[in-house]
Records
---
Amino acid sequence: MALLIVASTATCKKDKEEADKPAPEIPPESTFVMDFSKFNSTSDTSHTKALADSTYRAWLTSFLNVVFWNTVLTVHAIIPVAAFREAFNHSAKYDGKDKWIWEYTVTANNGTYTASLEAILSGNNISWFMYLTKSGEYERFLWYTGLSSLDGKTGNWLLYYSPAKPEPYIQIVWSRDPSSSTGQIKYTNVLGNDPGYGGYIQYGLTTSSPYNANYTIFYKEQNKTTKIEWNTSSRKGRISDSKSFNDGGAWHCWNELLQDMICN
């Protein structure tokens, strides 16, 4: 009897420890949602002027280069992005065998969805799976998967197109330095048979001066690479785009007011 009591107590203690096992941290939003904040507002007064004023050409060309990928995120990925953001407002439940589940509802694109974000610990990595259900339409559609290092410094996501077209669409690769808030995130079009397959946009945030943020954009159809650099505080920046400016890739700069200026 004594042995049974000891064994039962040990089992209960182990079960409690397992139930209390802390969930891994969800990688921050910056690993999933690229920062378009300086190039996403069509109501920007300088942008309005730029439509009719060639002295804003460098910034406007940068804006137009970024707007396509911004549209991908805000239109084609609006539901999985909303589900990702909502996860931070909820706690996970331990499901045994180093698996945790965040379950909640989220409203996006005029619809309500049931989300199940699952994390599985394996060695030094965490695998992520986001299942979304919309009543009457689809159940537990795997909208994206991911893999992140246990230290939270590197990882990737794979975003699928839609429940109607469940094909890999955008591959996201990211790295970050939590101590300095710097890092990189890259979106690549991996949709089979798409004309833009292989095209990508990469965003980086650094401690460099005078430009601490940058985009590199590759257009597969045009075989064109565009480079954009700017200062996140002053908004001063520059662009290299050989086909848009037909000049072999020289830098074209803009000032704090987004007006063209001679590059130093």
---
Amino acid sequence: MTHVFARAIAVHCAALLFVVPSLCAQTALSFEVYRSRVEPIFVKARTGHGAGLSACAACHAHSGTPLNLEELEEGENGRAFWSEEASRKNFAVVARLVTPGSPEHSRLLRKPLAVAAGGTALHVGGKFWQSQADPDWHIIADWVRSASVRGVPSETAAGPLNFEFFQSCVQKLFLSKRPGLVECVHCHGVEPRNFAPAIPAGRDFWNAEESRRNFAVVRQYIEPGFPLMSRLLLHPLAPEAGGDHMHAGGRRWRSQDDPEWQMLAAWVQGATPRCAIR
């Protein structure tokens, strides 16, 4: 990236953020600090047994998850490492999982963090940070906190998610079919991502009690105030538009301009938009 191009991105980052958040994040986050202090955490050996105690790279090297790291190389002494080229590719991936200036709203820091300490409800690899006092959590948090992008709030000002809008409109998306894709209910009726369970026989929609249960599950995949940190909006979004690396159910939205995506983004930001789902 030339200095001229980097400067142009910095000037227009607020406008670009909604379209290509990783590009903006990379202009604010330090690659040097990432490579020297953050990336070693991904290959850090952990004591004990079980998935939650494996090195991050054991699961995230060329995985289907958003933290899709490059394959490690092995040196003559048996030490596993990433080349600088691979580290830069990893950096681009990791940059999409943090909110510069705000560790508390960064997916990278919340997934492996205990729920009681502010973490997300689920991390397949386990919760190996029991508190924000963990040294590794602090290293990554300091790196994220030292960066900032104009237009990215350090704390969300969004109001609470509107349950009534979820009940009457968002749930319609789970039943709505698009050409070439199956409806959400076909895959998301079983745990752990069971926000669209089968509707009891004799009805064509969820009742209030069932809707509240669905809402509680969906909230796990939303970061209020941050559409681009909310997995509900990223998982079915095309990668070239800022979506996750893989979604087994295909790509419902090819761009962030899709009316459905825009509607959900507004809802996540605390608004009650017009329902865009037929």
